[in-house]
Amino acid sequence: MKNWRLTFSTTYELSIVEDYLLEKGFTLSFISQETDGTCEAFATRAEGDLQESLQEAPYLKNLQFEEMLPPQVCWQTQAELHSPHFKNGKIEIKTQNHAASFFLHPAQAFGDASHETTQLMLMLIARHVKEHYVLDIGTGSGILAICAYLEGALKSYGVDIDQEALKAAKANVIENKLEKHVWIGEKKDLRLSKKANARLAIFANMISSELLVVLDEYKEYFESARLAILSGLLASEKTKIVENFKKIGWKLLEEEHLGEWIGLVFTR
Question: Which of 135, 138, 167, 200 is the most exposed place for a label (fewest CB within 10 A)?
């Protein structure tokens, strides 16, 4: 995978541009648009001819791009500076009922409970996850999968497409001695029993454009699951997400807000 900075102008809504870039194999980490229509985006994409893949892009005018070399980051230092839960070289996370704590190693993978979307997920997980099996899509550091088990889930499965995230999540599972209870891996290696499928709760903490892709890629799991807990979503996107879930037989059970972000719980 390579990291790219794209600059371009467009007259289309950003959601349309996001969907187009996803179709072209990009994973977006940031995108912004000025009032004059100029945009900047940071994205990753597998090796290939970038210019050829975007040369007929109807949504991207005056396109310029440059490869961004990954910065050399000391994640230990970053955690010490920015994580409110950093303690003795690790990030300490308390469950919502404060019955247990667990630890994460500072790493590139997203999820240390400092972001509002993660806080929303932890809050909603504590209320709803007991006696469920969990599928955490885009597990990052593994924080949600680990916390779910400690909050009463029967077993957690965390999947990701980022190899660095998988490495970090596996290390965190081992750190907390939960190898028998929390499985981390790629989707292609995921195996759920009939029992797990019948009592499945799906987690997804990601931006809306990624969530809509996941709805299709994990269609068979959403068809069998009982519960879905979502965040990474702006409150202004609630109607769009609710409508998409209604189309596939889900109904909104609960919502929670922190700042501009929203957490949603769906059931079937």
Answer: 167
